[in-house]
Amino acid sequence: MCRWAAYIGSPIFLEDVISLPGHSLVRQSHGATRCHTPVNADGFGMAWYGERAEPGLYRDIMPAWSDCNLKSLTATLKSHLFLAHVRASTGTATSRNNCHPFAVGKWSFMHNGQFGGYDGYRRHAEALIADEYYPHRRGATDSEVLFLMALAEGLDQDPAGAMARATAKFEILARQRGIAPYVRLTAAFSDGHRLYALRYASDEQAPTLYHRWSDRRGGRAVVSEPLEQDETDWLEVPPQSFCIFEGDRVSQQPFLPDAARAAA
Amino acid sequence: MCRWAAYIGSPIFLEDVISLPGHSLVRQSHGATRCHTPVNADGFGMAWYGERAEPGLYRDIMPAWSDCNLKSLTATLKSHLFLAHVRASTGTATSRNNCHPFAVGKWSFMHNGQFGGYDGYRRHAEALIADEYYPHRRGATDSEVLFLMALAEGLDQDPAGAMARATAKFEILARQRGIAPYVRLTAAFSDGHRLYALRYASDEQAPTLYHRWSDRRGGRAVVSEPLEQDETDWLEVPPQSFCIFEGDRVSQQPFLPDAARAAA
Amino acid sequence: MCRWAAYIGSPIFLEDVISLPGHSLVRQSHGATRCHTPVNADGFGMAWYGERAEPGLYRDIMPAWSDCNLKSLTATLKSHLFLAHVRASTGTATSRNNCHPFAVGKWSFMHNGQFGGYDGYRRHAEALIADEYYPHRRGATDSEVLFLMALAEGLDQDPAGAMARATAKFEILARQRGIAPYVRLTAAFSDGHRLYALRYASDEQAPTLYHRWSDRRGGRAVVSEPLEQDETDWLEVPPQSFCIFEGDRVSQQPFLPDAARAAA
Amino acid sequence: MCRWAAYIGSPIFLEDVISLPGHSLVRQSHGATRCHTPVNADGFGMAWYGERAEPGLYRDIMPAWSDCNLKSLTATLKSHLFLAHVRASTGTATSRNNCHPFAVGKWSFMHNGQFGGYDGYRRHAEALIADEYYPHRRGATDSEVLFLMALAEGLDQDPAGAMARATAKFEILARQRGIAPYVRLTAAFSDGHRLYALRYASDEQAPTLYHRWSDRRGGRAVVSEPLEQDETDWLEVPPQSFCIFEGDRVSQQPFLPDAARAAA
């Protein structure tokens, strides 16, 4: 499992979400409370949007709490839209290319969850990556494969549908060749304009997902765990949901990779 | 705080202490049970003696649990005498030069503990390092200073006395310029023949120290925490003690830096 | 391009080949003279055989000249058979999993050369890795793919034939989908008993390969570049050759992946 | 020796100086032409000013040419004032804390040069750091000591004088305890408003220093080596000079640490 936090709204210093809150993402890197692994110290990363279409990307292999570059970057960079992630490896190596977020062109993507027995069918999952996106396959994680599959499924035109089709393909593979849990998946991704998030599991244990508008920040945080433990107004996204965040608006719809699969 | 484990006896693969036991040092790097910080993931290191007088030294900044080099080295290297350490920084940076063990010539040294308010008197502590040993000052930790001070105090001729005199000097400085707790200190060090360990605190909270002879290994482990949680025959070293391990023998004596200080 | 050095003979400290000679491998990492890229600083690695069937493996991303762990390991480890490599990336990331040597079970492998346009057909090359060896696919290099393909082709039973068949398959792919030069390849590999090396190119520019017996060491070095620039008795292996080194003996035979391909 | 580049002017993407020019700083990291060490691959760093008084700081231990984070950061960050450095160690370890620039509060500082025999008098140099700045002493370089000494000498009130006094103190120490060449020093530093640079040596071999206004960028680059090898209008700063860059203006004055020393 991993933990992540994203933000959309008025530009803020990244530290305002990543390290300053009482239960910030950095805090969660050594003391997460709503998942099985309190320690998420197998690298970290962040993607932030600014003047260019492509996000900036900074990822490294140290625990987030001890990286002096992360501290300086989050204290000096401002962004209206960013994603940040702390990793707990479920098997693959601690290397920069296995750290989230992943970025291709204007898109960035990060993931928390589990594809049961992925190591046994990695070869078959990778074979589903389209030629066009294969040069972007740099690491060994299931998460990067899902992202590259979704890009080929049309993330540009239909974010929810593309991600559902990619998830369905993965789930079929997991059912054929993997072990339970087939798919547990909470993800966030962005094209630099909208922020998308989804929560899904093929069993009863979808990883947690919350969001909350902050008047002080003038923006919304979308997170694995609430950033302050005494704030009671975080909204929990129910399982099998897909959210679109744009400006201060939220729209939420069912996320049904099964339906997509049936239609395939 | 940190955790460490050392071994003296018949040559064994290093993994037999560092990673294979149920509560091995690697396990303690993310789940220590007898100290305030369960996570000790700010780097690690090991020193082992072989054919040369100088120990081999391998230190790196990743958590011990995720380092593939550590896994391979401990699985293939055999030694009759080695020290290993997982670090939880009390402030200084996560860098190789701040990782234990430290080594100068034939000597290696590692430490778990705290010198209260050290950051406020680091300058004065470093000024106590003898010219001869200053080129070996590579990092910023209090532990490395203590080691270099002890070398100048005559570690070669009188290990217990040299370490007591160095500790006393440090304690004087801590009382003058630091904050309580002045000194908490559990350390192990070796010249390649004997293994030394000490447990001391200027208050009531000396870090833990245990040892146990293993017939299976044909050697003795000296550790911060017992390597198996169901083994009941680990011997706890009382505070203010200095131990000498040679072959299968143990000798234990009071460790009294105050006395050394008074005599100085 | 990269540079490498291997050794078989009486046990020696690894530094005796890797860092002490006047034109040692570490020296070649910043001043290689017989290849296009004098700087080979995109990581390094070494595999050495000792008491276990599996080799020890140490790889890291820093330039070889500045890694303090490498310095200590090579100064204290002795081995009768080892491989060492300094890397100049031809495109893939500087990460441990892209550093040579690669190791699977008792086998280790390292490579210097070029598969023209590999990035464009990586997907198809990876698809040729057998299921059995896919979990060992950790990085993104062509070299690791060649090694895993050779394992599936029967490296255990027929090292020369297996490597020829794997090379032939790679060359077919390179001709179909890559760009010239199709294949340039100098490699060394070992099962812990024999040391194998080959030199091959589909054009006129096979990377260099030399070997020399040293009475002082009681062993033979097999290298990209002679370890001393004033030693005149290094034997150059001609292109399209496969060498077997065992004890003090050398046997050399043609390496003809084309023939293997024709027979396939 | 090292290489560095700085910029002041209209905000530009950092890559416009650091990696895009034909003889960019990244290019100089493996092929510098105006110094003794063509390879400057022992880490790198950059400091850039934005919305906060303190600069952002990113430093790492890989060669600049292979760091994917550096590539992304320089492609997405814009700044009106920044410093960047590629390092060739003259002895101290490759670690983040030894990489330039160094930053304290609003000040950033980087250096290229040599204090002959520094290792022999490091202890005495460090003893000259004022108590107030000692907590900022994180690495082991002479450069960081010079910066911290200059801060205590009044960098805020009198940048040229403070740096001259610090250099003079260092030069006295070098003459007393070091070996020739006593001091060779080209440095750049900034408070976020002005950019300062100096070129000085106690012998005839001061490291090179150039600057050039670019209409295209709307700003001035100040560098160790011209960023394009065919641009003929780079201005070479003569030895023993101190430059102040503010907006598009340059003011240049003698840099005479000897005079400062005499007056001390």
Automatic annotation (TrEMBL), chains A, B, C, D:
It holds the Pfam family GATase_4. Residues 2-248 form the Glutamine amidotransferase type-2 domain. InterPro entries: EgtC-like (IPR026869), Gamma-glu_amide_hydrolase (IPR052373), GATase_2_dom (IPR017932), Ntn_hydrolases_N (IPR029055). Keywords: Glutamine amidotransferase. The keyword Disulfide bond does not apply. SUPFAM superfamilies: N-terminal nucleophile aminohydrolases (Ntn hydrolases) (SSF56235). This is Class II glutamine amidotransferase. It comes from Paracoccus mangrovi.
